[in-house]
Amino acid sequence: MTLPAKAPADEPSPDHSDCDAWLIVENMSGFAWSAGQDGKLRYVNTRFLEYTGKRIEEFTGVEGLSSSARTGVLHPADVDLTVAAWSYAVATGDPYVVEHRVRRADGTYRWFRASAVRIRDPRSQEIGWYGVDIDIDDKKRTDEALRHSEQSLNHLIETLPAMIWRATPDGEPDYINPRLANYTGRGLDGVGRGPEDLGRTLDDLVQLKARNAMVHQDDLEAAAAAWALAHETGALDLTARLRGADGSYRWFQARAEPVRDEADRIVHWYGVAVDIDDRKRAEDALRKSEQELRGIVDALPEAIVVIGPDGVGLYVNRRLIDYTGLTREQLMSPDARGNPVLYDPDDWARLRDERLRGLAREMPFEIECRVRRKDGQYRWFLVHYNPLRDEQGRILRWYASGTDIDDRKRAEDALRKSEQELRLLIETLPAMVWRTAADGEPDYINQRFADYLGRPLAALAEEKWREIVHPDDVATATREWSVARKTETPIDTTCRFRKADGEYRWFHVHAEPLRDEDGHVVRWYGVNVDIDDLKKAEEALRATQVQLSRASELATVSGVAASIAHEISQPLAAMVANGHACQRWLAADPPNLERAQLAAERIVRDGTSAAQVVSRIRSLFKRTDLTRTLVNLNQVIGEVSRLMTDELAGKNVRIEADLADDLPPIWADPVQMQQVIANLARNGVDAMASEENHPRVLGIRSRRDGTNRVLIETRDHGSGLEDVEKVFEPFFTTKQEGMGMGLAICRWIVEAHEGRLWAGHNSPRGAVFSFTLPISPREA
Question: Would the pTM count as exceeding 0.70?
Answer without folding.
Answer: no
